[in-house]
C-alpha cells in the first residue's frame, strides 16, 4: 500500500483481503464475505467508484442494525422449468445475486433461456459483476434491479421511482460488451461528488425543490433526479420496477428503502436476471463473426469533433480493470480510511 497526494495505491488482492477480514469480524460467513468483497473490488477495478469501497460503511451499519441479516441463506421459493424465484430473506443482495447468476447460467444451458427473480433483497452493488459472468459463460445476460425513489417521473417533481439500473452483457470473441446503467440521468453519487469538489452540475441531471433545473449540487440533493433521456428513461424505470419489483412480489417505488436509511430492516429490493443461449438461435461461429463485424463497423467509424475514439459499452471499464491489475487501485485516502475505520 502506497500513499500519493491524498490517494492510496493498493493491490486489488490486498483490498479484497482487508474487506474480507472486516466483514468476517462483523460475523459474516466467509463464503458470503468473499462474494461481497469480490463485488466491491470488481467495482473499484472497473472504475465504478460509486459502487466500490465507499459502500462498505453503509453495509457495515446495516449489519450492525439488523437491516442486512447475515445469518440467513437465500432460498428458492418457486421453481418451474426455466423460471426460479429466490427469497433473499433480507440478506446481502450480493449473495442472492450470485446465487441467481449461477442458476441463470445453469438453466440457460439446460433450457436455452432462464428467468430468475429475487425478492426481499438488500443492495447488490454494480450489476456488471453478475452480467459479465453470464457473458463469460457464453450467454447473453440481462439484469434489472429496482432501488428506492430518488427520481421524478417525466413531467413530475417528486421522487417516485428509483435509479432502477439495467445491465446487458453480450459475449464476443474478445471482451464482452457490457452495458450497465442507471435509468436516471446520472447516479446520485456523482452529484454528491460534485458538491464535495465544489463543482457545478449539468442542469439536465436534477430539479430543485420547486421543480426547476439546477446546476447547484446542494439544490439537486434536496430536489430530485430526472429520468435518463426524459420519457425514455422514465419508461425504462417503470419497466424495471414492475419486472424486478412487483413481478418478484418484492418492493416497488417507496416500498423499497435506501441503503443509507431505515437500517434496521431489509431494503426489500428486487432483482431479475435473464439469460439466453446463443446457439439456440444460430451457429456460434456465425454469431461471433457477425458481432465482430458489427464491432469493427462501429470502431472504424469516424469520431465526431471532440472525440478521439469510439468506445463500446464496458470498454473503458475493461481498460480500467487492466490498469488496476498492472498498477494497483487508486483510492481516495478519506474514503479508504472511512471504510477501514468504520469497524
Ligand atoms: N444496485 C443498485 O441498486 C444500483 C442502482 C443504480 C446504479 N447502480 C450501478 O451504478 C453503476 C453506475 O451507473 P451509471 O448509470 O452512473 O453508469 P455510467 O453512466 O458511468 O455508464 C453507463 C454505461 O455507459 C457506458 N459508457 C460510459 N462512458 C462511455 C463512453 N465514453 N463511450 C461508450 N460507452 C460509455 C458504460 O460502459 C456503461 O455501460 C452501474 O454499475 C450500476 O449497476 C446500481
From TrEMBL:
<dbReference type="InterPro" id="IPR003767">
    <property type="entry name" value="Malate/L-lactate_DH-like"/>
</dbReference>
<comment type="similarity">
    <text>Belongs to the LDH2/MDH2 oxidoreductase family.</text>
</comment>
<protein>
    <submittedName>
        <fullName>L-2-hydroxycarboxylate dehydrogenase</fullName>
    </submittedName>
</protein>
<dbReference type="InterPro" id="IPR043143">
    <property type="entry name" value="Mal/L-sulf/L-lact_DH-like_NADP"/>
</dbReference>
<dbReference type="InterPro" id="IPR036111">
    <property type="entry name" value="Mal/L-sulfo/L-lacto_DH-like_sf"/>
</dbReference>
<dbReference type="InterPro" id="IPR043144">
    <property type="entry name" value="Mal/L-sulf/L-lact_DH-like_ah"/>
</dbReference>
<keyword id="KW-0560">Oxidoreductase</keyword>
<dbReference type="Pfam" id="PF02615">
    <property type="entry name" value="Ldh_2"/>
</dbReference>
<dbReference type="GO" id="GO:0016491">
    <property type="term" value="F:oxidoreductase activity"/>
</dbReference>
Amino acid at each position: 500500500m502506497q500513499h500519493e497526494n491524498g490517494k492510496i495505491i493498493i493491490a486489488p488482492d490486498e483490498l479484497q483481503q482487508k474487506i474480507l477480514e472486516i466483514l468476517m469480524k462483523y460475523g459474516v460467513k466467509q463464503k458470503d464475505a468473499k462474494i461481497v468483497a469480490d463485488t466491491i473490488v470488481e467495482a473499484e477495478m472497473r472504475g465504478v467508484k460509486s459502487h466500490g469501497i465507499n459502500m462498505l460503511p453503509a453495509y457495515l451499519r446495516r449489519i450492525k442494525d439488523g437491516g442486512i441479516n447475515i445469518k440467513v441463506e437465500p432460498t428458492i421459493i418457486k421453481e418451474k422449468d426455466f423460471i426460479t424465484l429466490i427469497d433473499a430473506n433480507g440478506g446481502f443482495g450480493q449473495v442472492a445475486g450470485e446465487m441467481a447468476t449461477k442458476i441463470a447460467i445453469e438453466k440457460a444451458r439446460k433450457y436455452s433461456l432462464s428467468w430468475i427473480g429475487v425478492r426481499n433483497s438488500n443492495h447488490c452493488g454494480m450489476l456488471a459483476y453478475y452480467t459479465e459472468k453470464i457473458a463469460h459463460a457464453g450467454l447473453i445476460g440481462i439484469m434489472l434491479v429496482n432501488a428506492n425513489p430518488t427520481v421524478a417521473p417525466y413531467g413530475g417533481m417528486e421522487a417516485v421511482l428509483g435509479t432502477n439500473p439495467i445491465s446487458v452483457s453480450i459475449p464476443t470473441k474478445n471482451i464482452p460488451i457490457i452495458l450497465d446503467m442507471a435509468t436516471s440521468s446520472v447516479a446520485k453519487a456523482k452529484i454528491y461528488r460534485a458538491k464535495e469538489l465544489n463543482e457545478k452540475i449539468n442542469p439536465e441531471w436534477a430539479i430543485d425543490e420547486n421543480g426547476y433545473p439546477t446546476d447547484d449540487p446542494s439544490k439537486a440533493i434536496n430536489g430530485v433526479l430526472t429520468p435518463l433521456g426524459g420519457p425514455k428513461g422514465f419508461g425504462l424505470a417503470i419497466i424495471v420496477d414492475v419486472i424486478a419489483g412487483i413481478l418478484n412480489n418484492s418492493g416497488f417505488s417507496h416500498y423499497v428503502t435506501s441503503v443509507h436509511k431505515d437500517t434496521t430492516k431489509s431494503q426489500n429490493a428486487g432483482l431479475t436476471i435473464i439469460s439466453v443461449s446463443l446457439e439456440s438461435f444460430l451457429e456460434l461461429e456465425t454469431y461471433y463473426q457477425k458481432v465482430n463485424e458489427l464491432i469493427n463497423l462501429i470502431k472504424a467509424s469516424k469520431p465526431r469533433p471532440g472525440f478521439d475514439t469510439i468506445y463500446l459499452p464496458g470498454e473503458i471499464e475493461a481498460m480500467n480493470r487492466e490498469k488496476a491489475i498492472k498498477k494497483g487501485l487508486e483510492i481516495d485516502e478519506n474514503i479508504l480510511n472511512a471504510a477501514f475505520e468504520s469497524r
